[in-house]
Amino acid sequence: MSHLNTLFAALCLAPTLALAQMASTPLEGRLKKIHETKTISVAYRTDALPFSFEDNEKKPSGYSVDLCRSVIGVIERQIGVTPLQIQWVPVTVQNRFTAISSGQADMECGATTVTLGRMKLVDFSSLIFVDGTGLLIRTSTAGSSLMDLANKKIGVIAGTSNERALAEALKAKVVTAVIVAVKTREEGLAQLEAGTIDAFASDRVLLVGLAGKAKDPKSLTLLDKPLSYEPYAIVLPRGDWAMRQAVDSALSQIYKSSALPEIYSRWFGAMGRPGPVLEVMYALGQLPE
């Protein structure tokens, strides 16, 4: 790593390192409640394959879910309660933040992008993945870029960071298109297959999983170039620094252990090794005690 990259990494880590040096796992806020009830409530998405979804037995599954299970295992040792009972709380794109801010859940493990606007409502852990907004189109659609979708209909879930990324990309490329708001990815897929829309925008890895659910997966293709980058994290209660310190400490231990390669390989093994951006993200998450 060059001197410049080393300096950049140090500057990125400085605020979190200061936090990590504070008192270890004080029982305040949500941690105190978790200790007293011996229960932790975890919100999860049912539609965010391969990050968070329900398997054939209707049980929470996915990369983010597995990572949070490991985080909870570390928190059990931190607060001296083994085992913690996990209360799984299914959430949607629309109510995931309310579930955390209202106290219905203590953390959300899905495919949630960190944004400054969302920090007004909730807090976030260290990053757990980096993806990008992409476009899924029918293979019969001519062209291979956003510019080729001029004057066509592009679906996107309203209120998501993907909606903002799509609008910004269209503006930057001076492309005029009709943005069609949908409520779920499944609705977006159905409209794309039916020809009601010409493309569907969402996180790229989620689009890969979504295409696998199509009646004919080969009839759909993902455009190569992402419209934006989407940094994922575990959603936490705003202002509860003890809870965040506990989760970040747990993630740091996991990122240093053999558990991380196993979890990554389970869900993304077919994609090969983590790319450079993910490698740096995992390295920055390995905070010293």
Question: Brief overview, please?
Answer:
The chain is an alpha/beta fold.
Question: Could you please describe the fold and organization of this structure?
Answer:
The protein folds into two domains: 3-130 and 230-284, Periplasmic binding protein-like II (D-Maltodextrin-Binding Protein, domain 2); 133-228, 3-Layer(aba) Sandwich (D-Maltodextrin-Binding Protein, domain 2), CATH 3.40.190. It is 40% helix and 23% strand. It is built from ten helices and twelve strands. The protein has helices spanning 3-20, 29-37, 63-79, 96-101, 161-173, 185-194, 204-211, 241-256, 259-268, 276-284, and strands spanning 39-45, 47-48, 52-54, 60-61, 85-91, 107-109, 123-138, 153-157, 178-182, 199-203, 220-222, 228-236. Helix 3 packs across helix 8 and helix 3 (63-79) packs antiparallel against helix 9 (259-268). It starts with a helix and ends in a 5-residue tail after the last helix. The model is unreliable at 1-23 (pLDDT under 50).
Features:
289 residues, alpha/beta, D-Maltodextrin-Binding Protein, domain 2, 6-stranded mixed sheet, 10 helices, 12 strands, 40% helix
